[in-house]
Amino acid sequence: RTLVTGHNGINQAMLCAAAGLDENFFRKLEFANCGVAEVIWNPGEARARRWRWLYPAKSVWVEVPEEGTAGGIMPAPIMQSEADATPDEAREACAEEQGL
Description:
The chain is α+β, with helices and mostly antiparallel strands. It has helices spanning 8-18, 87-97, and strands at residues 36-40, 50-55, 62-63. It has a three-stranded antiparallel β-sheet with strand order 1-2-3, with no helix packed on it.
């Protein structure tokens, strides 16, 4: 396990880099003040496999796409209170929150 800390912009850049996303995705994922994201990135792999928020609220896991992203965005994890939504509803909500 590794803990990395930083401020908003650095955290956004690191999360995008872990997911294999280019600079076009920088700042599209809001990283809350004091936010904590958990990322599964196995040794030797080119990018992370999945991620979720742990704080300010725990979310469900989101799988990182093998290549590119569906609809031009990397889906943000939904909070567990929203987990009853269908996958399509969850993706639409995330896209709206990101202004896409």
